[in-house]
Specification:
Layout lengths: L15 H15 L6 E2 L11 H14 L15 H13 L9 E4 L2 H7 L9 E6 L3 H9 L3 E6 L18 E5 L11 H14 L2 E5 L25 E6 L1 H4 L7 E4 L5 E2 L2 E2 H12 L5 H9 L3 H27 L4 E3 L5 E5 L6 H12 L1 E2 L1 E2 L10 E5 L4 H17 L3
Parallel strand pairs: 1-13, 3-4, 3-5, 5-6, 6-7
Antiparallel strand pairs: 2-8, 7-8, 9-10, 11-12, 12-15, 14-15
Helix pairs in contact: 2-9, 3-9, 10-12
Bound molecules: D-malate.
Length: 398
């Protein structure tokens, strides 16, 4: 008889965002006349910028003509996009070769797929609270997970701990869900730790475009020594509104070698076996993000989300509720008022003011008692949610 992957039995019943969506769907079916405001999952609300739309249109037109038509795309990415991304890194003074860049269909897809590079016996260290897919993907693979709890005392950016040595190390900065950022000094400590123990850091840079503070690194490869211990995974979802369009990229330096195996060459072997590349049209649209005009346009969209963050932060400031994020990241992470548990606060917000957020506990047990708002909603929804939240916080006397 076929033996299924029994590790699935070790997962929670449903994935965090799927579970929340089901809960909200049920509420909405039972209360069809109530307007629900969604500040839960980090899904963008602004359309793709003009430069991307014209490049996508050009891509469609190219596919309509025999002379410009593209069939299968190169598995690791179109040369024009790999070059544009590598140029973007080089423009920031980071030495990345075109063939160290791999085009992907998005960071969440890639964060799961990349685990093919690691032995099942490897352990994975997850700094919590954390994007839940890090944990779930490793449970599915049957790996041992080492949880490293972070908190207010370390600014949600802990330092490595010699008692928690791991083969794979996840770092997300700017962080989802806390919005905290790792300083250059802290990242250097992690890089040195990984090199010392032969670990590999999976650096999730999905939110790098939101960094305002000039001293904060956008890439792990700004840190000396990272090229021998890190893989960087990035996405255009949040940077350029590609959540429904799907495009991301991964940087794997050729200097990343363990047990005589070169990770860059392994990923070429993996991609050429497991994919036929990302669609030409989407890659054409993605390349526009790296042009001067494209950069300008996406910055305008990011500024819009940052204004949403300010609206929500004003409410928290007014009630004296402490939070992280909102400045270098599109998430605001705060302690639930009056010592409430995070699911308790979730239910209260849904029932009383019909605002959806994400309970901190969904990002790991140390997230209990915390709550996350996404700032990716529309301005109208954010303003209305802020007003309803203010009313609720006043009424429960925070
Ligand atoms: C989140 O809300 O944490 C993320 O946006 C979800 C995702 O990227 O998959």
């Amino acid at each position: 008889m076929t033996k299924p992957n029994m590790n699935y039995a070790n997962l929670k019943d449903s994935y965090l965002f799927f579970g929340i969506a089901q809960k909200v769907k049920k509420y909405s079916e039972e209360n069809p006349d109530k307007k629900i405001l969604r500040l839960g999952i980090g899904d963008v609300s602004l359309p793709l910028c003009k430069s991307v739309i014209s490049a996508l249109t050009e891509g469609v037109n190219d596919q309509a003509e025999k002379s410009s038509f593209h069939g299968y795309m190169p598995e690791c990415g179109a040369p024009f996009l790999r070059r544009a991304i590598a140029d973007f890194y080089r423009g920031r003074g980071i030495n990345v070769a075109d063939d160290e860049v791999f085009v992907s269909s998005g960071a969440s897809d890639e964060l799961g797929d990349i685990l093919d590079l690691f032995d099942k016996e490897n352990s994975a260290l997850v700094i919590e609270p954390a994007y839940p897919a890090y944990v779930d993907a490793n449970i599915i693979a049957g790996r041992k997970i080492i949880h490293l709890a972070s908190g207010i005392a370390d600014g949600f950016t802990p330092e490595p701990d010699e008692d928690r040595i791991s083969d794979i190390i996840y770092i997300c900065s700017p962080n989802n869900p806390t919005g905290a950022v790792f300083t250059r000094e802290k990242l250097k400590k992690w890089v040195d730790f990984a090199n010392k123990h032969g670990s590999v850091i999976l650096f999730d840079a999905a939110y790098e475009a939101f960094i305002e503070d000039e001293s904060v690194p956008h890439s792990i490869f700004e840190i000396d020594g990272a090229e021998t211990c890190a893989i960087e995974i990035c996405s255009l979802s949040k940077t350029a509104g590609f959540t429904g369009t799907r495009l991301g990229y991964t940087v794997i330096p050729k200097a990343l070698i363990r047990c005589g195996m070169n990770f860059n060459a392994m990923w070429v072997r993996n991609r050429t076996t497991k994919t036929n590349g990302v669609s030409y049209i989407i890659q054409k649209g993605g390349a526009a993000v790296f042009t001067e005009q494209g950069r300008k346009e996406i910055k305008e969209n990011i500024a819009y989300y940052k204004e949403n963050a300010k609206i929500l932060m004003r409410v928290l400031d007014g009630c004296g509720i402490e939070y992280t994020g909102g400045v270098n990241a599109p998430y605001i992470w705060f302690k639930c008022p009056n010592g409430m548990g995070s699911w308790e606060f979730f239910d209260l917000l849904l029932e009383k003011i019909r605002v959806v957020g994400t309970p901190g506990e969904g990002f790991g047990s140390c997230g209990d008692g915390y709550f996350r708002f996404s700032t990716f909603g529309s301005r109208e929804d954010t303003l209305e949610a802020a007003e309803r939240l203010q009313g609720l916080l006043n009424s429960i006397k925070v």
